[in-house]
Amino acid sequence: RLGSGKFSALHEAFLVDGAFVHVPRGVEVELPIGIFSFALGDGAAVFPHTLVVADEGARVTVIDYFGSQNDTERQLAVGANDLYAGHGARITYVGKQDWSHQALALQSNSTVVRRDASVQSLNLHLGARQARHESLSQLAAPGAFSEMLALTVAEAGQEFDQRTLQIHQAPHTKSDLLYKNALRGTAKTIFSGLIVVDSDAQKTDAYQSNRNLMLSDDAEACSLPGLEIQANDVRCTHGATSSRIDPEQEFYLQSRGIAKEQADALLTFGFFEEVLNRLADD
Fold this sequence. Notes:
- It is a single chain.
- This protein is mainly β.
- Helices cover 12% and strands 52% of the residues.
- It has helices spanning 5-14, 247-254, 260-276, and strands at 19-23, 33-39, 45-46, 49-54, 59-68, 76-85, 90-98, 104-113, 118-125, 130-139, 145-154, 159-168, 174-183, 188-197, 205-214, 220-229, 235-244.
- Strands 1, 3, 4, 6, 8, 10, 12, 14 and 16 form a nine-stranded parallel β-sheet that branches. An eight-stranded parallel β-sheet has the order 2-5-7-9-11-13-15-17, with helices on one face.
- The longest helix has 17 residues, at 260-276.
């Protein structure tokens, strides 16, 4: 439903390795697990894959780093990551995408959350010339919670295409999506999100928000949030905003000796802080 079928097939056809993280029942991993994927050389193609399985009551934090040797190489990256949280498990996932600014990048994420389990995912988008990121979250049992976060810094002529799907399949489930984009130059972002509530998923609590900070007159942000509700006892909200830096806030910083460029950087970080503060680990 997210449109990634052909790219998923391409990923599977060329997949030769990846990372598999399995946390047994009741085990809590104290330190984050880091996974590093790099594309080296002009014309390189990479197909990274990360699979995280947390059994009942397990706890784990996984950080995926995606990067290139430099910003000028033309590359193709088609990646995927799968997160499975068993009953009562907790997964925190952070993905940092920093491919070459000449790369074409496609990434798909699939998350399954079981009874009384929770998954928090944050995707940071920095690199690639054109990047598409698709995220599917399935809340498959009562008490499941999925928190879907993303931060994007879009510069020059970069284009970021974000597609999300929150599927509530059981009663008493909750999802919370917050995607924030900062756009400079002629950058473009596209957000298309859908909340689906099945007929049996009564008492669903779902939220979806896309917020865009426009730092240039030539930047473009397109937002298409949506709902598809088949149950009659739910709370679902969605929305999107686009705004510019408040001139009064900018003037306040400049009047205290801070240059305009640094002032805008501080205000942009403040815009992102709402998402960053949701992470428990500094």
